[in-house]
Design goal:
Family: Belongs to the glycosyltransferase 13 family.
Pfam families: GNT-I
CATH topology of the largest domain: Spore Coat Polysaccharide Biosynthesis Protein SpsA, Chain A
InterPro entries: Glyco_trans_13 (IPR004139), Glycosyltransferase_13 (IPR052261), Nucleotide-diphossugar_trans (IPR029044)
Helix content: 40-55%
CATH class of the largest domain: Alpha Beta
Function: Initiates complex N-linked carbohydrate formation. Essential for the conversion of high-mannose to hybrid and complex N-glycans.
CATH architecture of the largest domain: Alpha-Beta Complex
Membrane topology: Single-pass type II membrane protein
Shape: elongated
Length: about 450
């Protein structure tokens, strides 16, 4: 009995010891986990404090940036007022109260200071003597410091700056944002000159152009024609087919259904019409002007020999057509006294009749080898094309511009494209299928 009791006590003692050991092991395990938890908690607390410090620091920076933005906005508004005041004073200085300006001349610039200098020096060579008639402006799009510095270095010029920080969204994939910005800049600059400064006419140049000696005389004479003939939308100094081999007579002017651009003048009433609908989502503003719905059967005056030369190989258009069409352009070097010239022949009815006679009197050539035949002729010739593809084929044979816009070939009048044959008196007329009827011959 005593032995059995002893065994039970030993078993109980063993069980007690086992339980105590298990409890100790469990307590030790939980103590380790508790220590790890406390360590993790301390790390989280440290990280949280670090994050709080970072957030606090960022909040301080945000507050500082907001305060800086407020100051910058105030400074910008103040500078804008100063610029407008300086611009107003500059305009008052440039405009002689005793002389009514023929037209303001604006050079559209952005980020090419070297091009701008070449353009301005070309203009000042001939503008200085007629400065009161043609006050000169530079309108810069953006904040390029070198362009601004260059523009402000000319005391004879009023500086304008177009700042537009809104993001540009193109309508179609692959389009260049630059062209949208250019269109917005044009609208802003022309609104400034026509509406704010109340000029009757404006001549638009770009920062990659040189001008001819009679540039200002040409536009002064053309201004009277532009004012009196509402069938003329604008006057240009440019001929797309003005390459040396295609021109002869520096006095010859033409009406055209195709807007040439590249040095052109328009009136305030025309701008008031165009400004509200000026394109925001049309890639090229000049192609928009070429739409029939925009020019509405009005025409453009262009010279045979260009009064501007475009040297802009590098720019938004990335040198498109430069080597083939722009570099060979002939810039007029003869000073024509345009105010002594009778330009009444450019009035709509007179020009239509005379141009029709010239076309009808030219020797007609037919067949696929008509261009080859033209080389052997010693008189004006006309060659009919049937459609755009046919025109492009013939134009390619002579080397003139093949491009059409909204159904109109470059330089065309009533579908007729005229150019000189190898710098001679001879004219080549490329005549559309409906041209003779439109010319009433």
């Amino acid at each position: 009995m005593a032995r059995s009791l002893c065994i039970l006590l030993l078993a109980a003692a063993a069980a007690f010891i086992y339980i105590q050991v298990s409890l100790f092991a469990t307590q030790s395990h939980y103590a380790d986990r508790l220590a790890q938890a406390e360590k993790s908690e301390n790390q989280c607390t440290s990280q949280l404090r670090s994050l709080i410090d970072q957030v606090s620091s960022q909040q301080e920076k945000i507050v500082a940036l907001e305060e800086m933005k407020i100051r910058q906005d105030e400074e910008r508004a103040h500078l804008k007022i100063l610029i407008q005041d300086l611009e107003k004073r500059s305009v008052q200085t440039l405009v002689n109260n005793n002389v009514v300006p023929v037209a303001a001349v604006v050079v559209m610039a952005c980020n090419r200071p070297d091009y701008l200098q070449r353009t301005v020096e070309s203009i000042l060579k001939y503008q200085t003597s007629v400065a009161s008639k043609f006050p000169l402006f530079i309108s810069q799009d953006g904040i390029n410091g070198e362009v601004k510095k260059k523009a402000l270095s000319y005391n004879e010029i009023t500086y304008m700056q177009h700042l537009d920080l809104e993001p540009v969204r193109t309508e179609r994939p692959g389009e260049l944002i630059a062209y949208y910005k250019i269109a917005k800049h044009y609208k802003w600059a022309l609104d400034e000159l026509f509406i704010k400064h109340n000029f009757a006419r404006v001549i638009i140049l770009e920062d990659d152009m040189e001008i001819a000696p009679d540039f200002f005389d040409y536009f002064e004479a053309a201004a009277k024609l532009l004012d009196n003939d509402k069938t003329i939308m604008a006057v240009s100094s440019w001929n797309d087919n003005g390459q040396k081999q295609f021109v002869y007579d520096p006095k010859a002017l033409y009406r055209s259904d195709f807007f040439p651009g590249l040095g052109w003048m328009l009136t305030k009433p025309t701008w008031i019409e165009l400004s509200p609908k000026w394109p925001k989502d049309f890639t090229y503003w000049d192609d928009w002007v070429r739409l029939k719905e925009v020019h509405r059967d009005r025409q453009f005056i262009r010279p045979e020999v260009c009064r501007t030369y475009n040297f802009g190989e590098h720019g938004s258009s990335m040198g498109q057509f430069f080597r083939q069409y722009l570099e060979p352009i002939k810039l007029n070097d003869v000073h024509i006294k345009w105010n002594s010239e009778d330009l009444s022949y450019l009035k709509m009815d007179k020009f239509l009749i005379q141009f029709g006679k010239d076309v009808s009197s030219a020797t007609p050539l037919h067949g696929s080898d008509a261009a080859l035949k033209a080389h052997n002729m010693d008189a004006d010739v006309r060659i009919q094309y049937n459609d755009q593809e046919d025109f492009e084929r013939i134009a390619r044979q002579f080397g003139i511009f093949e491009e059409w816009k909204d159904g109109i070939p470059r330089t065309a009048y009533k579908g007729v494209v005229v150019f000189r044959y190898k710098s001679s008196r001879r004219r080549i007329y490329l005549v559309g299928p409906d041209s003779l009827g439109l010319l009433r011959v």
